[in-house]
Amino acid sequence: MTWNWLGWLLWIGAVVFLCYVIHYIRVHQLMLIAKTGQRYTGNLVIRYVVLLVIAVAWLWGMSYLSFFRPVNYHDAQEVVTSTKYQTLQLGQVKDDYYYVKANRSQGGKHPVVSYTYWTTGSKNLTNSRYGSIADSDHYLSTEAAAYPWNRKKLAKKDARTNHAFAAVMTIRYRNNLLNGLGCRAGHVAEQYTLIRVPASNLIYQK
């Protein structure tokens, strides 16, 4: 069982409390008008403001924990990482063979939108936002270097596969109280694919 139940409970509480505040203000305003003919009094206005501030702060806090709180992928207290390694196979593109095919968009800021690569018995596709290619002397691309890879395993895989492999890292939120408050515990935070090729001429980019 994850801590997410606590987050869901607090979300429900925040929404119910906001509904209660709206109902409270409406009922008391109607009673005030019916009894005195006045539209507001100082004490009621202060009470309304305090209740609204609490309701908005509660909802903002839950929104921050659920959607906006940044997470350090290198912090083992916050996340759990796992990596799957696959050896690349040559795939046919038109009349030649490549390890990777760069798929381009018709326009826009990102001409390469995804990468297609081949492994034993399967054809794989990854979004270029969450994947990159290393085709230099080093097994890590500049973009991938920001992630918490086990570099010793990458180096061994690089040597064993003759610089032709894919490493898919899955980062999950750890099941702890803080992640549970944001209903994140156990969920995937990000999945990133590093594609290693021996040389750039083994990438189809036309």
Give the topology.
Layout: H1 4-36, H2 42-68, E1 79-87, E2 91-93, E3 96-98, E4 100-104, E5 112-119, E6 122-127, E7 131-134, H3 151-160, E8 165-173, H4 177-181, E9 188-196, E10 203-204
Parallel strand pairs: 4-10, 7-9
Antiparallel strand pairs: 1-8, 2-3, 4-5, 5-6, 8-9
Helix pairs in contact: 1-2
Keywords: Membrane, Transmembrane, Transmembrane helix
Transmembrane segments: 6-25, 45-67
Describe the structure.
This protein has 206 residues and is of the alpha+beta class. It has 2 domains: 66 residues; 127 residues, no CATH class. Keywords: Membrane, Transmembrane, Transmembrane helix.
Looking at this protein, list some descriptive labels:
206 residues, alpha+beta, 2 domains, four-stranded mixed β-sheet, 4 helices
What's this, in brief?
The chain crosses the membrane at residues 6-25, 45-67. Keywords: Membrane, Transmembrane, Transmembrane helix. This protein has 4 helices and 10 strands; from the N terminus they run ααβββββββαβαββ.
